[in-house]
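Friendly challenge for the regulars: who can give me the structure tokens for this chain first? No prize, just bragging rights.
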Amino acid sequence: MPKTTVHVVVRGVKGREGRMRLALFAAPDGFPGEVERAVRRMHAPIDADSVVFVIDDVTAGAYAVSILHDENDDEAMATGAFGRPAEGYGFSRNARGTFGPPGFDDAAFVVAGEPVDIVIDLIYH
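First reply, four minutes later:
Bragging rights claimed.
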């Protein structure tokens, strides 16, 4: 099966603390919070207002990306009152949920042989 590269640009980073974490999901199971179910996980230091991830060897199919600005570097989303996210986050297709995270289908994009470029704008509360 042919493989390609997915480039993810994460924009709107506020602060340089912690790491930017990416999870690439190939199915709705676990998306977006159960990163252990992701087919690929990556992290990067933050040294600018944007962070770029290059995901190589991605097989054709439907995928969704979740991003976390893990400011305290504990590998989990910090939450405040009523479970509201206390760290920056985002999803492929800049998908948003109504009362919680978006579903896989809302964030899904297709990989079909050509390299894929994705831009995710972080959300901070």
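The domain at 3-121 is CATH 2.60.40 (Immunoglobulin-like). The CA atoms of residues 3 and 59 lie 5 Å apart. Your move, everyone else.
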